[in-house]
């Protein structure tokens, strides 16, 4: 029996006979199965009304991380007939779903080796591919992460030479743990409280991460009040955030953010931070094309980010691709914010803005912050 894909208010739904599987839904009511690809908040459902009728397919790591973040996972199973979890390389425990050997849903995916995260060992050939397209435009090509780490180390070393502490920023879950690994050689090393909580979860699951002192404890013990510079891991936020304003005023910090959106020359100015380097836990454009070619599907559905643009590109390459933009409000919201990012690139004036101009665009800054911080 062939599977079908349709959209619902809660999210994408795969149907095969009597079996129904919701993919990364925003809400759940009465389906057989729910698949959670990973524990970022825009992929974990709210508490369901009827818990007994729902089975949640996910990884052991995703279940543990989600619970640590306050989500209630219902009736978790880690395997099921005709449903195969496939490593996606996005964050610890992230999976794609191969359903009935017909449909492959990538979830968020990265095919790069990064510290303790390995690329997917299997990209299945299927009839239908549902692929994320967060960075599905040709301008989003990420440098090798070793070059980015080298550039970041130079920035930190220069700041240390001048006596400035450095705040390095990324998503609290996923990116921050990689940054902890990449920059563990800097002393002293502190972490924002929410990052230290996630670091501890990773440590409990066997990932070796250097011990760090959380921000609250460091402040209370006056460890930040020193003539020597230090490095702190923090969530990615814009310069108008209360935390960054406080740290700038009190400690004269240098701010360094890591995001795939930093491919846009205006991103650093929009965020109001000192440095921004393009590092992502998603595939870049070329890597998305690689995934499509390996799958060699008859039909493709693109979701998230530049879904329309990526579908057009794939159609021009000879594939049958269609965007799915309406399967949940969270996708519409993400696409809206990525469109705002795209406008940054096309606006030459942004690159000329001064810091005073940044303060007058706090509303736009907050929109960027939603994409790069809160939804993760």
Tell me what you see in this structure:
By secondary structure, the chain is of the alpha/beta class. The chain is built from twelve helices and 18 strands. The strands form three sheets. The protein has a six-stranded mixed sheet, with no helix packed on it. A hairpin with a 4-residue loop joins strand 1 (4-7) and strand 2 (12-16). Helix 10 (329-346) packs across helix 12. The chain is globular, with a radius of gyration of 21 Å. The two termini are 36 Å apart.
CATH topology of the largest domain: Metallo-beta-lactamase, Chain A
Care to count the β-strands? Answer: 18
Which homologous superfamily in CATH is the superfamily of the largest domain?
Ribonuclease Z/Hydroxyacylglutathione hydrolase-like
| Total number of domains | 2
In which order are the strands of the major sheet placed?
1-2-3-4-5-6
Uncertain regions spanning at least 5 consecutive residues: 326-343, 345-375
Overall, the morphology is globular
Helical stretch tally: 12
Proportion of residues in helical segments: 25-40%
CA-based gyration radius: 21 Å
Compute the separation of the termini in Å. 36 Å
In terms of DSSP E residues, the strand content is 15-25%
Highest-level CATH class of the largest domain: Alpha Beta
Give the biggest sheet.
6 strands, mixed
Average pLDDT score: 87
CATH architecture of the largest domain: 4-Layer Sandwich
Specify the structural class. Answer: alpha/beta
How are helices and strands ordered from N to C? EEEEEHEEEEEHEHEHEHEHEHEHEHEHHH
């Amino acid at each position: 029996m062939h599977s079908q894909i349709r959209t619902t208010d809660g999210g994408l739904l795969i149907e095969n006979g009597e079996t129904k599987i919701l993919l990364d839904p925003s809400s759940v009511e009465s389906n057989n199965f729910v698949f959670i690809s990973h524990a970022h908040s825009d992929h974990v459902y709210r508490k369901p009304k009827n818990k007994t009728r729902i089975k949640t397919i996910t990884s052991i790591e995703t279940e543990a991380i989600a619970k640590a973040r306050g989500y209630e996972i219902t009736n978790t199973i880690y395997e099921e007939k005709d449903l195969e979890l496939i490593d996606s390389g996005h964050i610890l425990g992230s999976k794609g779903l191969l359903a009935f050997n017909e449909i492959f849903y990538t979830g968020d995916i990265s095919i790069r080796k990064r510290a303790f995260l390995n690329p997917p060992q299997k990209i299945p050939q299927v009839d239908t591919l549902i692929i994320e397209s967060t960075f599905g435009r040709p301008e989003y090509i990420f440098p090798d992460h070793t070059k980015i780490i080298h550039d970041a180390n130079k920035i930190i070393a220069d700041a240390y030479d001048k006596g400035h502490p450095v705040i390095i920023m990324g998503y609290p879950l996923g990116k921050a743990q990689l940054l902890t690994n990449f920059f563990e050689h800097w002393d002293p090393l502190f972490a924002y409280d929410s990052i230290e909580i996630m670091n501890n979860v990773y440590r409990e699951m066997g990932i070796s991460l250097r011990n760090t002192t959380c921000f609250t404890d460091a402040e209370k013990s006056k460890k930040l009040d020193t003539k020597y510079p230090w490095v702190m891991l923090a969530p990615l936020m814009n310069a108008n955030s209360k935390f960054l304003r406080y740290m700038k005023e009190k400690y004269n910090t240098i701010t360094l953010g890591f995001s795939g959106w930093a491919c846009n020359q205006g991103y650093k100015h929009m965020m109001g931070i000192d440095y921004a380097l393009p590092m992502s836990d998603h595939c870049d454009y070329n890597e998305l094309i690689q995934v499509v070619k390996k799958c060699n599907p008859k039909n493709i559905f693109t979701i998230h980010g530049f879904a329309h643009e990526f579908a057009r590109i794939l159609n021009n390459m000879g594939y049958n691709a269609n965007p799915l933009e309406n399967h949940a409000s969270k996708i519409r919201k993400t696409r809206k914010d990525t469109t705002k990012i795209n406008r940054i690139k096309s606006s030459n004036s942004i690159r000329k803005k001064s810091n005073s101009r940044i303060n007058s665009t706090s509303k736009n800054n907050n929109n960027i912050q939603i994409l790069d911080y809160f939804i993760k």
